[in-house]
Amino acid sequence: MKKKFSLNDILNDKSKEKKKRNDFTIEYIHISKLIPDGNNFYSVDDVAELKDSILLIGLQQPLIVRKIEETDTYTVSIGHRRLKALTQIVEEGNKEFELIPCKVETEIDEIKNELRLIFTNSTSRILSDYEKTHQAMRIKELLSALKQKGVKLPGRLRDIVADTMKISKTQVARMESINNNLSNEFKEEFKNNNVNFSTAYEISGLQEEQQEEALKDYKEKGSITIKEVKDIKKNKPSSETTQTIVKTTITEEVTQKEPEQLTPDRLLNVYVCSAYSGEDEDYQKAIEYCKYVVAQGHIPFSNIVMLHSVLDGDHYEKMLQMLQVGFEMIRIVDEVWIFEEDGEITQDMLHQKELAKQLGKKILQIGGICEDG
Asked: Is the pTM of the predicted complex or chain greater than 0.70?
C-alpha cells in the first residue's frame, strides 16, 4: 500500500549528520522584543485557560523564534497563543514573566518554517472551517514554491494537501472554489463563522452579481441557507450575460447585444479552458470538466473534447491548431472557466485567459474537479 504523504516528510528531511547537532540556541528574551509571525492566520483569542496554567506552573514549553536581521527583535515561529497569554499576564502586572525562554533558530528556511507553523497549529488545536480552508490553500502555495525550487514531491499537489489534512480531494476542491470565487464580503462572514462551509461553497458557485443579490438578502434577514442560494442560482441568471459578435483578431472591436435582448432563461455558453499535452489523460479530464459545466446548468465548449481524436500531424502542429480553435471558441462564448490542476496553468491556458480578458469575458477559476485524475 502506498504510504500517504505527511508534512513531516519535508520538515524532517535533514541528514543524520545534521540531526546530531542542534540548529538552535536557548535564550531568555524580553517580551517586548518578540513579534508574531505575520503568516500566522490562526486564532489566538481564547487563551484564558492557558494563562491560568502559566500562572500556576509556569511556561512549560519555550517559544521557537528566529532573529530579524540587523535588529534586536525576533519573529515568533511557534508559540503565538503562549505569547498572547504571556503578554496579558505581563500587562496585568506580573513582571516576572517578562523574560521568556526561547529556542532561537540558527538555520532558517522560510518556506519550511511556515509549513512547520501550519503543521504545529493543525495538530494542536481544533480549527474553524475558515482556518482549514486558508490552511489548505497556503499549504498548496508553499508546496508549489518548494516544487519550483526543485524539491521532488510524491504526487499531485491537491493529493498531497488532502493527505496532509486528512480530508478528501473533493473537499480540497471545494476549498479552492471558496478561495478563488467567494466574494470578499462573504469570505469575511465565513471567517467569522456566520456562514458555514457548505453554504460558502454553494455561494462560491454563483456569478458575481448573483453573489451581490445573495449578500443583499443575507444582510436583510441575517442568515442564508443552501436552498436559498440554489434558488438564486436557478431563478436569477446573470443580468450581465451578453451574446457577442466578434471580428477575426484579438485586437478588433467587440460588438455586444443589449442584455434585454436575451431570454431570461438562456443557458450560458462556457468555454472549458484546461491543460492539454496531447495525452489521452488530458482528454478524459476535459470530458469531466464538460460534465461539471453541464451539471451547473450550462453548455460546455471544449476544443480538446472536439479535436483530440480528430487532428492529425506532428505534435507541434496539432497543439497550434488546438490553440487556434480554442481562441475561436472563446470569441463566441459567454464565460471562460479555467480548470486548474494543482494550481498550475500552462502557457497555452495563459494565452487563452489573456484573450478572454481582452474580450471582456467573465473568467472563473476552478480546481480539483477530477478527484482521481
From this structure: no
DSSP class of residue 301 equals E
Which domains are delineated in the chain?
8-125 (3.90.1530.10), 244-367 (3.40.50.10400)
Judge whether residue 333 has pLDDT over 60.
yes
For residue 39, the one-letter residue type is N
CA-CA distances (angstroms) from residue 260 to 236, 239, 247, 255, 263? 14, 8, 23, 15, 8
- Percentage with pLDDT > 70 across the chain: 79
Query: Which amino acid does the sequence have at 187?
Result: K
Other beta carbons within 10 angstroms of residue 26's beta carbon come to 10
pLDDT of 126 strictly over 80: no
Parallel, antiparallel, or unpaired: how do β-strands 34-36 and 74-78 relate? parallel
Query: How far is 213 from 229, CA to CA, in rounded Å?
Result: 10
Q: Averaged over 235-258, what is the pLDDT?
A: 39
Q: Which residues contact 299 (CB under 8 A, 6 or more apart)?
A: 267, 268, 269, 270, 293
